[in-house]
Amino acid sequence: MQALFDQLDWLLPLCLLCLGLVVGSFLNVVIYRLPLMMETRWRRDCCELLEVPQEKEAARLTLATPNSHCPHCGSAIKPWHNIPLISYLLLGGKCASCGVKISLRYPAVELVTGLLTLCLACFFAFSPALLGAIIFTWALVALTMIDIDHTLLPDDITLPLLWLGLLFNLGGTYVSLGDAVIGAMAGYLILWGVYWLFKLVTGKDGMGYGDFKLLAALGAWLGWQALPLVILLSSVVGAVCGIALMLIKRRGREVAIPFGPYLAAAGWIALLWGEALTNRYLSAAGLN
């Protein structure tokens, strides 16, 4: 397989683009269904804890069942209507059964996932490092969209992402195992410390525990050395976007703004350009 990709240098990028588009379609399912599945599980747990009768549930929702359907008319989506990007364009952005417009977000997630996956071909050869970068990218896309929708970073994604980072770094795929373990611990404790300091000063919660776990996962993949860059990038972009949202949408400072998307973007940038950005900063500061 490696020889084939070496001989046909266009094949790997093409495969990554197609794979990213297909997985982007699946990520749309994860982004929509996983929070609903969590809410159902929380409701069931609360009923058990309070010893009250559970509500009668509709058909059990999983990532695989029921089959995809139009949320407006309930019609099942045919396989040929579910081809990433192509089906949306052929259908004119409308449901084939009822003609209601399909949200532009669905093809946008597919396209972004495809392009981000394609971008990895410029930095990684066909190797375990490429496989890890692909999984890392897909997880960050799902976490970003779920946090935007629900201000929630599910443990179902952040915790496996953390352990996978340590697994890939067992052999030093990105950083040494020691740096990865320290990165995971430091990533969690840094935001945990900021959270409690902010709470002691203001009496309010500044961020959620999902942010701690996400930064711990980024530390497990990228090592503790990348954490300053991740925190700096995410904080600067988050502050700029937060101020812009307050000015444009006239939001008050009390409105919660998810921090996960900025952490995810900073982590992805650090994966690809972290070393170059750090060296450039050190050179500019006369420290390198």
Name the descriptors.
mainly alpha
Give a brief rundown of this model:
By secondary structure, this protein is mainly alpha-helical. It contains ten helices and no strands. Helix 5 packs antiparallel against helix 6.
Q: Major beta sheet, specifics?
A: none
Helix content: 55-70%
The tally of beta strands, per DSSP, is 0
Helix count, DSSP H or I runs of 4 or more residues: 10
Q: Give the oligomeric state.
A: single chain
Kindly report how far apart the N and C termini lie: 40 Å
- Succession of helices and strands: HHHHHHHHHH
Strand content: under 5%
Q: What is the mean pLDDT? A: 87
Radius of gyration in whole Å, from Cα? 21 Å
Shape: globular
Class computed from helices, strands and strand pairing: mainly alpha
Q: Low-confidence parts, pLDDT < 50 over ≥5 residues?
A: none
